[in-house]
């Protein structure tokens, strides 16, 4: 393992192992400890769950933690462009920032959402890509413009915990929201459910397709797992679902154009998961959302506070899934450095 950018880059066997380990940790098994090793957390976008769960995971693993934030008294504003003449607001180039942090820690985790203005730039995922290019240490993506693999791993773990069948119906439904949100979570959720081999329905209004490159990746994973994808604009296509997973995202047709987005959403307020949706889904259906969630816009109180909602367990599993992921990553680093040490020791004893 060399960090984690997108869950689909791991083999399904590895994802299964990590999810099972996460459930062992949830049951109270103590993780391995790595004293003297360092983990960096760099938050260039806001967070509640990801910050808190990575901090706790670092403590459980005995890691030294370096945590940095953007804004105010946080890290300098980064320049991303190669060859830039830096006479504007950016103070430090990502080349130096990444390389320097890579000298202080053994693994670096980075959060940087999409800018939501320039689609081509967002598709290049420039900040996490820059850290992967220049840090010289494994990079864990804590949500980039395109992917949120730690959320996807926690969601996989949650479905294992609930005993959800690998072929069960999984509905990812678009939901209303006051703002156009990034695609990292829906991209990752869709890919994760198809990597599991599920019968996936992507329900979204016309104009709210995910990007063709994300759909192509989801289909690649589905063809390996036997998963099935149906795309519909029928928000009631939930019958027989084991999971109803709500998420809002912005329209690719209105990227960077808030007024157009508002016009497109004006007639979409009914895209909100309510008790009727869950009843239509059936008696085994559970409601999932990555949080934070806008109550009574994305989902009604009656669902979020009701017996079908698993969002708090889902959030708790962020901690266990990330502890399992980091444990694996640091174990591999230990094994690599032991390998190096033993070959050095061999050289020393050679005549
Ligand atoms: N789901 C999630 O990543 O939550 P935060 O944005 O609060 O970290």
Properties at a glance:
351 residues, alpha/beta, five-stranded parallel β-sheet, four-stranded parallel β-sheet, 11 strands, 43% helix, 14% strand, globular, binds phosphoric acid mono(formamide)ester
Question: Could you explain the architecture of this structure?
Answer:
The model has no long low-confidence stretch (mean pLDDT 96). Helix 7 (184-195) links the parallel strand 7 and strand 8. The longest helix is centred in the last third of the chain and has 39 residues, at 311-349. The strands form three sheets. The chain has a five-stranded parallel sheet with strand order 9-8-7-10-11, covered by helices on one side. It has helices at residues 12-26, 49-60, 94-104, 119-124, 126-134, 149-162, 184-195, 212-225, 258-265, 275-281, 301-304, 311-349; strands at 38-43, 64-69, 78-79, 92-93, 107-111, 139-141, 169-174, 199-203, 228-232, 243-247, 286-288. The protein is globular. The protein contains twelve helices and eleven strands. It folds into two domains: 7-147 and 318-340, Rossmann fold (3-Layer(aba) Sandwich), CATH 3.40.50.1370; 151-313, Aspartate/ornithine carbamoyltransferase (Rossmann fold, 3-Layer(aba) Sandwich). The chain is α/β, with parallel strands linked by helices. The two termini are 36 Å apart. The protein binds phosphoric acid mono(formamide)ester.
């Amino acid at each position: 393992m060399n960090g984690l950018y997108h869950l689909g880059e791991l083999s399904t066997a590895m994802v299964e192992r990590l999810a099972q380990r996460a459930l062992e940790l949830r049951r109270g098994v103590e993780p391995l400890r790595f004293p003297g090793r360092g983990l960096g957390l760099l938050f260039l976008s806001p967070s509640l769950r990801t910050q808190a769960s990575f901090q706790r995971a670092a403590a459980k693993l005995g890691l030294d933690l370096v945590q940095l934030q953007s804004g105010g008294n946080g890290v300098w504003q980064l320049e991303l462009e190669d060859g830039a003449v830096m006479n504007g607001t950016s103070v430090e180039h990502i080349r130096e920032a990444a390389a320097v942090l890579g000298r202080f820690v053994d693994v670096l985790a980075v959060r940087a959402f999409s800018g939501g203005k320039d689609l081509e730039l967002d598709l290049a995922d420039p900040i996490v890509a820059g850290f992967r290019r220049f840090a010289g240490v494994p990079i864990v993506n804590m949500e980039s413009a395109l992917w949120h693999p730690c959320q996807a791993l926690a969601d996989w773990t949650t479905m294992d915990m609930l005993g959800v069948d690998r072929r069960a119906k999984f509905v990812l439904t678009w939901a209303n929201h006051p703002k156009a949100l990034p695609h990292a979570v829906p991209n990752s959720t869709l890919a994760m459910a198809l990597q599991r081999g599920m019968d996936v329905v992507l329900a979204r209004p016309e104009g709210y397709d995910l990007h063709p490159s994300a759909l192509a990746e989801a289909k690649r994973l589905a063809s390996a797992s036997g998963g099935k994808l149906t795309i519909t604009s029928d928000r009631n296509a939930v019958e027989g679902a084991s999971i109803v997973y709500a998420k809002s995202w912005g329209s690719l047709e209105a990227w960077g154009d808030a007024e157009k987005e508002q016009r497109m959403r004006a007639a979409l307020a009914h895209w909100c998961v309510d008790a009727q949706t869950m009843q239509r889904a059936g008696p085994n259906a559970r409601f999932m959302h990555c949080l934070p969630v806008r109550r009574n816009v994305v989902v009604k109180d009656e669902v979020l506070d009701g017996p079908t909602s698993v969002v708090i367990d889902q959030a708790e599993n962020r901690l266990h899934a990330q502890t399992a992921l980091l444990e694996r990553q640091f174990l591999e680093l230990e094994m690599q450095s032991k390998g190096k040490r033993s070959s050095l020791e061999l050289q020393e004893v050679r005549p």
